[in-house]
Task: structure prediction
Amino acid sequence: MYGLVNRGVQQLVESQFGAAAWVEICAEAGVNPAGFVAMESYDDAVTYRLVGALCAHTGLTAAEALETYGAYWVRYTATQGYGPLMSSAGRTLPEFLSNLDAMHSRMSATFPDFQPPSFQVEVVGPNLLRLHYWTHREGLAPMVVGLVKGLAERFGTTVEITMDRRREDGADHDEFLIHHGG
Result:
């Protein structure tokens, strides 16, 4: 994952638990607390170790930590220069979710080794979406839940999200049902 992701973890930890917590989490994860270069690619294992150390430090489960981070990621990336790109991806939650792959495609020019997930939105009914999520990375479905919640906040709407299909149960991808306020 790119350093931008790990810097987001750092900012989340420092904003919610303090700078000393970040130093302790980095020590637990075997990571230099000086930080990450946003545009540099790091082994995914670094991010997973940071999340594991965050869980050990806070008592959060991995799912809770990833969901919290997903919601934070929406706010964080908007402040890191990606707000205009996010704004161009849609003016509503359904529109934005439908344009995630296109937005990731545009980002590929900036991040040459970028390996984004893929999303597909299916309209199931009024204010009900099915979000299909494919990734080669394991265990990140809770982050998607947080991302959707963070996006709902960004768009000033409400959401209820439940997992409908899980890779961990043998499906080829994860699926979420999203009830949104419109």
Observations:
- The mean pLDDT is 93.
- The chain is about 55% helix and 15% strand.
